[in-house]
Write a structure and sequence with these properties.
two-stranded antiparallel sheet
Amino acid sequence: GHGVHQCLGQQLARVEMRMGYAALLRGLPGLRLAVDPSQVPMREDMSIYGVHELPITWDVD
């Protein structure tokens, strides 16, 4: 929802995701996008907005 019906935990979930991705990238430095950022498909329906698919590669050194 939005307005008064917006989830109270929404902002907390966003912070947790940012922290989780940052930790993942620190732990796996060879993790890279497999496509140009402009080619990452987004989900833009009424209830969910965000990345639909995230193609990655991992260079193990």
